[in-house]
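Handout, section B. The chain below has 165 residues.
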Amino acid sequence: MTTENEFTHFDKVGNARMVDVSAKQETARIATASGSITMIPDAYAMVRAGSIKKGDVLGVARIAGIMAAKKVDSLIPLCHPLAITKADVVFSFDDANCAILIEATVGITGRTGVEMEALTAVSVAALTIYDMCKAVDKGMEISDICLVKKSGGKSGDFTREVGRK
């Protein structure tokens, strides 16, 4: 049995392991993550106007984020393969900072949570934006990727404290 402050991906002698979730109850679980990508004003204006030569930046980034959420077990060694039931990626614009804000929400009815899937969706969506815009701005900055909230499972609900860094 682990306590709240123990790492679960190590056995008693410190070897990495995949957590056994077979005895857990299936419950509805949902996680939301967020992050941002900041760019120069010219690149930001082009994304807003849809005039980046590679095409619909946010449309492609949305699909990339959803696809990434479905493949986390192929990217992160100890993650379970999951049959997620919901994956949404939404964008908003922060004109004052020339930043695109990214939010991903992933859901499942299962034995383990989907925090890693939501975080990965945000990360890959941001990387896709970078890839599609790098011809205009190689200095873009991806930042503030974090879990915003999660619900379900043994550990219950979590909501990130406002202003926490």
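Note. The two ends are 30 Å apart (CA to CA). Compare this with the example in section A.
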